[in-house]
């Protein structure tokens, strides 16, 4: 068995930092709703790939960091990523067996749940709209999932993160 890379935690944190940066990159107004949920996809991948090392607590910390970075209501991203991580953790053995297109369908559902939680919390605060356009990031995330999965799997294998 190959030795584990000593910087495995740094690799996981590094991918999350890239996700934080991608989630904050400026986009034209017409493309704002088309932004994929990068951090949610990265959390889904790491929970699926390393459920014994990256779980609900890691998702919660990632969500709190995202709340601080985005300046959103504290705990909103933490709650939604924790729920997404829990569902992924429950299903991780099954998800690993799915081909990429079925995984992408599940990512659509998981990121959709993430977006629904956002929408629900924002409806309490009074900053939400009446249309379903808030689900567009779930669709874009599902379409990008195969490439995100292959990239993160390549990083995990290159650096032998177990």
From TrEMBL:
It comes from the Bacteria. The chain crosses the membrane at residues 6-27, 39-61, 73-92, 104-121, 133-152. InterPro entries: Cell_shape_determining_MreD, MreD_proteobac. One of its GO terms (cellular component) is plasma membrane. Belongs to the MreD family. PANTHER family: ROD SHAPE-DETERMINING PROTEIN MRED. This is Rod shape-determining protein MreD. It comes from Neptunomonas concharum. The lineage of its organism: Bacteria, Pseudomonadati, Pseudomonadota, Gammaproteobacteria, Oceanospirillales. The gene is mreD.
